[in-house]
Amino acid sequence: MAARFAPPPGCRRVALTPGSFGHWLRYLPLLPAGTAVHLFNGRLKDPQNVHAAVLNIDVGSRDLQQCADAVIRLRGEYEYSRQPNQVHFHLTSGDDIRFADWYRGRGFQVRDNAVVAAPKAVEQPTHTVFRRYLDQIFTYAGTLSLARELTPTPLASVQPGDVFIRGGSPGHAVLVLDVAELPATGQRYVLLAQSYMPAQQIHVLRDAAAARGVWFAVNPNNARFDTPEWTFGREELRRFD
């Protein structure tokens, strides 16, 4: 991804620690330039003018990997690539579901809005099994649960891996893929990605106000932060611990 999207003129990408979530995001693979965004059922997303690229990662065949789920997917893939047994996410109920428990046979079911233990087959922590775990997380998690997992952070200090998120129904979540800065002024610009409803391929957003650019200017003094399909408040930026 970094090779396709150069920073704005005069800017440089912020320094990142190798192995960090932000560093991992910076080098995500993309599908060929010009690729359209498709929904989980193969249909085209409407509209097609809000994206600049599509991430090379599957969306699945069910209407599950929506906005918060896309953030969970990428964070989960990052954690899985480092240490699968550390992967865990909270459901909207607040229950913390660990991948290590899940593949070792400690599954769950939702009955009358309550999460109850449900034995399942013991499996190996393969990526195929991990994807099935994520699909179950997607089913019972969302913007409300993800927002509770994240820590509020000032917009002025935005970093790759941060999330613009509003928990609710409806709510939305947009992931910060990368950050560039103008050294002379400290002005920051962010590269963003999202999924949406219905579930669709994760895509890099285009800033319509910046002559088809992809870098969104960050102004901490503004009360709102606009993205193509959602407007967030400046206080709605959060970070994984």
Summarize the structure.
This protein has helices at residues 21-26, 67-82, 99-103, 127-140, 143-149, and strands spanning 12-13, 51-54, 88-90, 96-98, 106-111, 114-119, 151-152, 163-166, 172-181, 188-194, 203-205, 215-218, 224-227, 230-233, 237-239.
Describe this structure in words.
InterPro entries: DUF4846 (IPR032315). This is DUF4846 domain-containing protein. This protein is an alpha+beta fold. It has one domain (12-239). Helices cover 20% and strands 27% of the residues. The protein has helices at 21-26, 67-82, 99-103, 127-140, 143-149, and strands at residues 12-13, 51-54, 88-90, 96-98, 106-111, 114-119, 151-152, 163-166, 172-181, 188-194, 203-205, 215-218, 224-227, 230-233, 237-239. Strands 1, 2, 7, 8, 9, 10, 11, 12 and 15 form a nine-stranded antiparallel beta sheet that branches. A two-stranded antiparallel ribbon has the order 3-4. Strands 5-6 form a two-stranded antiparallel ribbon. Strand 9 and strand 10 (188-194) form a beta hairpin. Helix 2 (67-82) runs antiparallel to helix 4 (127-140). The longest helix is centred in the N-terminal third of the chain and has 16 residues, at 67-82. The model has no long low-confidence stretch (mean pLDDT 96).
